[in-house]
Amino acid sequence: MSSNVRTRFAPSPTGFLHVGGMRTALFAWLVARQGKGQFILRIEDTDQKRKVEGAEEHIIKCLGWLDLVPDEGLKNPIRQSERVKDGVYQKWADKLIESGRAYADPYSPDEVQKFREQAQADKKPFLYRNHRPENPPQWKPGLPLRFKSEPKDYVTHDEVMGDIKTGPEVVDDFILIKADGFPTYNFAHIVDDSEMEISHVIRGQEFIASLPNYRNLYEALDIEPPIFATVPHIMNEQGNKKLSKRDGAKDILDYRNEGYLPETMISFLATLGWNDGTEQETFTIDELIDKFSLARVQKSGARFDERRLIWLNGAHIRQLKLDDLYTYVSPHNDDFIHGAGYWPEAAYKSKYDQAYRKKVLNLVQERLKFFAELPELTGFFFEDLPVNPELISTHKQLKKYDKSELKKYLEKAKASFEGSDFSEADLTDRLNSLLEETGEKPIVLFSLIRIATTQASSSPGLSQTMAVLGKEKCISRINAQISAL
RNA sequence: GGCCCCAUCGUCUAACGGCUAGGACACCAGGUUUUCAUCCUGGCAAUAGGGGUUCGAUUCCCCUUGGGGUCACCA
User: Fold this and answer.
1) How far is the CA of A271 from the C1' of B23 (A)?
2) If 0-12 CB within 10 Å is exposed, 13-18 middle and 19+ buried, where does residue A451 land?
């Protein structure tokens, strides 16, 4: 066996990928990179019934988004269904039949189900081998082929979980080849991992109970087992079950579509159940290649807390250069952004140019948590929002004021702004003078002007915002507010 | 029910058997002369319970409790 590090991501194409699956892929990719080995994508499509159209393309797209590019299996995906056609699994199955380690299962699914229900009624785990037929028929296609196990004690080492001790009671005769001729996962992955010289099998916790069965099959097949690494599940927000699609887990591409950065997702996934022992909170992909280790992966499941993801993305966005941020939020040719990109539609009307949009973006960069928030944050920069009386009637200070008084202040402000060149500095000066003139507190006067000029519940700094909006818009909006009072 | 795994603030987590159990998210308060946000400062908040071993236990052992996984012709 080669000592080369080779890891694989082996999803079944049954739907979209969520953070749990994506994290497993990331860990496998990291182990391959840091071992200077290969990362292989293998599509486990042996269940014809559960196969979902487009799922394979989706998986590749997800890997591409995070730049976890497979060294093998990308251009010509390795599909188990095709290996079935090539007779790969049959060849190994024949070996087992010859050596007496596989036999035909003569029972119908209903009969097996009865055994299972009996075991359940007796409050005992179901073991098929308790019903192992004495003289099984000659195996032929159309019958399930079962592994003839040789139950025994095992101590199985797992890179994450440590040594797992099990007794013979967990080793059973499982199905190798189904009646439809396709191999089960339990059989196919072992054959494939061996033929593809996979060194580390990194997968979710749901497989840990099967490890003794796999050990038994490895022995029967005379295959040296790979290194096992069992990664605990990511739990849902309530923490009571593993994160699942059924349970509302989001498609990983939804995060891309909502405007999360790939580097955010990488750092988030890596630190969900792993840390390097220091107080470092975020990691670049290069730091992860350098520092990641399976041994430091948490043994218990971590809950998925989207708030941390949101915070992390905001932090990454703030660090972006303006031009890079602009590229991210603008329309590109990708299949997921159309028309105005993340901008409000109005941002692409002819009167707004790139320079204007960049000025706007610069003002909202520090408050942007994900790109999909952009229309809400910037709408008023591109179109006049209708006067919203509630902004004043619910304002904790302004609601105490008489409308005629507010009108008076707005008239004064307008008069001052008429003479402004609308540079940020001049506007700041004028706003401060207005404060002295009226003797009002900033919270009152500035809130009033902010509401009049934006009609939004919050905005960037007032003089900055006004400078970007320009004189014409500000004056006309103040007029609109005055007549609405 | 059998088997396996797990157990530190609300959440993610740190702590060769040895400081007042540390950090981050979230939340709360104050500051950065408008709001929101950013940034800064401070605050709240945890070793599931019980036995051992030890001078000393978050750490090692046992029991209990709790949580998760698994017991498919799904992966």
Assistant:
1) 14
2) buried
